[in-house]
Amino acid sequence: MAVKVEDPPREEKQSSPHFLMKCQTSYEWKAIVSTLQNLTEEASFDVDSSGVRFRAMDPSHIALIDLVWEAGGFEKFEFRGKEGEKDRFAVRIEDFAKIIKRADRNDSVTISRNGSSSSSSDALQIKLGEHRNFEFHLLERDSASTPLPKLDLGSKFSISSAVFESVLDDISALTNHVRISAQPGGTLTFSGKGDAGSAKVVFAQGELVKFDSPQESESVYSLEYIQKVLKPASSSSDVVESDVSDAHQENLTCSETRFEAY
To answer: Which of 22, 245, 252, 12 is nearest to 128 (CA)?
Structure first.
């Protein structure tokens, strides 16, 4: 009598960790892709057990986007890599945005990637709502992320996103740059001057959500870069947090997105 011996099932080789991240609505991803579309053509996201991170400079090296999205900020987050391991996926922003923007206002967005050696590991699985599924092919991953520069930021303030956007619109009516001046324990001033005239908006400490200026700070920034990030990012955040310094450095934080300008 012949005995048939079956080979044991082969284990799939793990080429990259498996992850899944789900947002309850499409607001966050829409804000992120809109911001990135204004500054870069390609983006590489790092995923590990702590969450998702993206960091890159714009082509002119004037602005840096630093996205930190912690695992607790998702409705559901899974990462099955080993301790200290991370996965990286790279996308062409224009194509990635086309899918994300197909999501309806209240659609959940689920993005996942399997860890097998099959070809699908080079693609994201994107689910919008409960019924629409996409497979999105990835770019080759680069090996290094952009280092975070050392910043010397003195004054800090928090302001309503809508108010901040209105202030910048006022200044941009006459000039392409905004001067931000902070007085210790006193006032925060936004001003600008152009050929057609000048504009100034002054806030007392009590009129801001938060204000901390241990020393006098004054710097000038490009309105173009700040507005490119602020308008899409503020759609997912009611408050903008900012740090400024005399070294012409500014750090804006809107929800999960941090923007730095020089």
So the answer is: 22
Would you place residue 110 in the very low, low, confident or very high pLDDT band (cuts 50, 70, 90)? very high
Q: Are residues 98 and 180 in the same domain?
A: no
Give the integer Cα–Cα distance in Å for 8 and 116.
Answer: 18
Domain count of the fold of the chain: 2
pLDDT tens per residue, range 47-56: 999 999 887 7
| Cβ count near 89 (within 10 Å) | 23
DSSP labels for 193-218?
A: EETTEEEEEEEEGGGSSEEE-SS-EE
Residue 6 included in any domain: no
Domain span including residue 214? 155-261
Question: Looking at residue 219, what is its pLDDT?
Answer: 82
As a whole number, the mean pLDDT across the chain is: 80
Read off φ and ψ for residue 48, nearest 5 degrees: -145, -170
Establish if 12 belongs to a structural domain.
no
Provide the CATH number for the domain around residue 235.
3.70.10.10
* 133 and 172 co-located in one domain: no
Residues forming beta bridges with residue 199, ordered by sequence position: 192
Full-model pTM? 0.67
Give whole-number Cα distances, 97 to 104, 129, 132, 194, in Å: 13, 16, 16, 36
Sign of dihedral through CA atoms 88, 53, 29, 176?
negative
In angstroms, the Cα distances linking 193 to 138, 165, 178, 226 are 45, 18, 8, 17
The reported pLDDT for the residue numbered 51 is 93
Strand partners, 181: 189, 218
Q: How many residues does the chain have?
A: 262
